[in-house]
Amino acid sequence: MGSDSNNLLNEITQSDYKYGFVTDIETEYAPLGLSEDTVRYISAKKNEPEFMLEYRLKAYRRWLEMPAPEWAHLKIPPIDFQSIYFYAAPKKKKELSSLDEVDPELLATFEKLGISLDEQKRLSGVAVDAVIDSVSVKTTFSETLAKHGIIFCSFSDALQNHPDLVKQYMGSVVPYADNYFSALNSAVFSDGSFAFIPKGVRCPIELSTYFRINAANTGQFERTLIIAEEGAYVSYMEGCTAPMRDENQLHAAVVEIIALKDAEVKYSTVQNWYPGNKKGEGGIYNFVTKRGICKGAGSKISWTQVETGSAITWKYPSCILLGDNSVGEFYSVAVTNNHQQADTGSKMIHLGNNTKSTIISKGISAGFSNNSYRGLVKISKRAENSRNFSQCDSLLLGDKCGAHTFPYIETANKSSIVEHEATTSKISDDQLFYCQQRGIDMESAIGLIVNGYAKEVLNKLPMEFAVEAQKLLSISLEGSVG
Amino acid sequence: MILSDITNFDQIFRENLKTIGRRDTEIVSEYRADALNHLLRLGLPTSSNERWRNTDISKALQTDYSIFFEDFQDQLKPEDYFTCEVAGLDTWLITLLNGWYTFKNSPLRILPSGTIIGSLSRAMVECPELVENHLGKAADNSENAFTAMNSAFATDGFFIYVPDGVEVTKTIQMVNVVSHTDPIFVQTRNLVILGKNSKLRLAHCDDSHNHNPGFTNSVTEIIMAENSNLDHYKLQNINDHSTLINNTYIHQEAGSKCTTNALSLHGGFIRNEIFVKLNGRESSVDVYGLYLMDKKQAVDNYVFIDHAAADCTSTEMFKGILDDYAHAVFNGHILVRKDSQRTIAYQSNRNILLTDKAQINSKPFLEIYADDVKCSHGATVGQLDTNAMFYLRSRGISEDNARLLLMYAFAAEIINKISIESLRDRLDDMVKKRLRGELSICDQCVLHCKTPDKPIEFEIDLSKV
Hints:
Mean pLDDT of chain A: 80
Distance between the termini of chain A: 18 Å
Mean pLDDT of chain B: 84
Helix content of chain A: 25-40%
Oligomer: heterodimer
Number of helices of chain A: 12
Strand order of the largest sheet of chain A: 4-3-7-10-12-14-17-20-22-24
Helix content of chain B: 10-25%
């Protein structure tokens, strides 16, 4: 690329984070720092059943013994857990039953985010559960869903109204001792979303959760639990943003998906936490454990993610393919710019016969960022006729950034086929020349090529999200480079 | 001595320092002491070490090995052990028995062209400046415990020096045979120096002579000056109770070209670590490997290619067929440094599993910090192509033969990369034998063939398929 495009790339990397506003909402905090008392405080605040408190305390004690993971290709500055508020909630004035009662400031926040609850409710037919700081503020469409027997509510509501379901499934896919951040989350998680699709029901609308960290010095620890019973289908979307702040904020979430026989769960994420400024100051540390289990035969779990935000991303959505003929999919676009770091990928654990998995990962690095794909495909001895195809491509924009690929392939079955391919390159001069020769300016040409590069994954997103994701890609790499 | 207890090494080093370092120059003895410190700091690898994640070395370290710091076999007739000859291949043969250089005439031969071949410990005395200037230049003791151990303890090995502008016409064949009545721990250190515009072909064989357990920890440093050219073959055919750790460090300057090929046919446990540093512009390296393992054999290939200069090319291809309970690990790591623009790096690892008990772990890594690069990697694990199988069967070829043919075709891609024709033919034969289960560890070395057997043919004519 010539100096033109270098200038352009520089320009592109100067673009701003448009979700960086702070909303002035009265907020209630837990005492600063982390201790058993904090854990008890959160549990008491949420009026949780006894088993939940015990679970939290077990997780907390385990977490104390665990070392912070260092294996990822990330530079993680030490995190001072004693200077974080582990619970922050918009002060509740009274119970809300309709949007009119929601704090207008809050509504304005979502308006700015482009996900006006009201508008979404009317126009797009998407049920939204919005989580701000630590608690779920509003769930729309609950009534409509209830008619089908679908439960879609905040995690706290689920604990109050359906404790048996929570008790049965929580921690069954991601045990609290799974890793450092899942243990932390299990101890201090404040809220999240809960979805239950009963047997044979095809969820008529997309379910969506919007996460926002608003208050300063807080960590957000949410937990999502999705259960699809036999033959059920659901498409679930998740989006997130945070204000611009100079200090780093911690986000450690756990997502668990259980798909029983012939069930299908499609989980889409557009992650756009504040990535920090151009010097790499501030931004969210995004340490997320996402895992689904295809428990029954013929079930399917599909992860799609567009990762554009966060100063550090540490995230490996995984599928345990336990049931025969089950299918796991992972589609990812990860964009890093400025001083962002991402270490993301997927794990596909094949345990059942005839299980199939696909991994398509597209990394785009610009600025001084580092973008790594890290994945595991494991075929166990008894997973007859299993099949995996993985493809991870990296695109480098600029010579100060890094793109890395760390695939792990472990096969112990002769009837299985595993294929992995990866490429790393920059935008080819030929392609740029071709576009420019046809009168497309450099900026549009780069945009066109990058868009085409990510298309394979963007196509997998639900329509409402695909539009947002494309916009996001554009913002992350400026106007047209999307 | 039990290797697993790291403190043993400290004690043994101090007790035997006089013997170990009897020919050391000052610089070399400092190098040893430094390496020992690294070894004690690092400790021996366990599976919690990322590079050893899928390989358990602990069992091999439990055996009680005898270890020698002085040549203990003066009464020996080398010709009883080394009858290595490849039909039609004229070589300069140099040999090690249990880690000690064996010779009839002189331990250090100087060929008319100025090329020096012979024993490293002898070279330390006769041309100390060459050894001092190059020993330890490519190998890194600070990260690899076995390399550090070798640097601290090894006293002998091969030494080859090719002066500037010299093309060595004959292939040099280095053969290391391990043959001892009780378990023996052997450490060899090889140093190969190629001057500017020089050219060398090197075959490096590791063999066992009987079925006693042995542990070989070998480090080979190859230093290639500008525009030098090297063809390097490693043939490994050791018994099922033996362990071989073979760390090869290749340092390449501008315009140099290297091909290295690791062929592992038999072995209880073989670990090949290949580190290539492309330190000068427009240098290139091709790293190939083939492993055919069965029973409870294990092979672990670790390849690290460091693109430290611009305009370099690297190609990596490793293929393996695993039968019975065999276990193979492939770790490929390509590092493209910040200013290494216009790098081309390809990496591929393909495996065939023949049973459900066999296991493969493949980790093809790319770590890239430059943007103008073309890098790709691929890894596959599968079985023989059913369509191809059907095609052969439908033409009346028996199932066994069809399977052999397909396996052979799979392996042939690597065999065909061998540029020395006679060696290629020999390897071709050996692979066929190996696939038919007829190649055991030879009574002699891997190229044992004073009177080469009749070439082995499949029952059908290959050329017609």
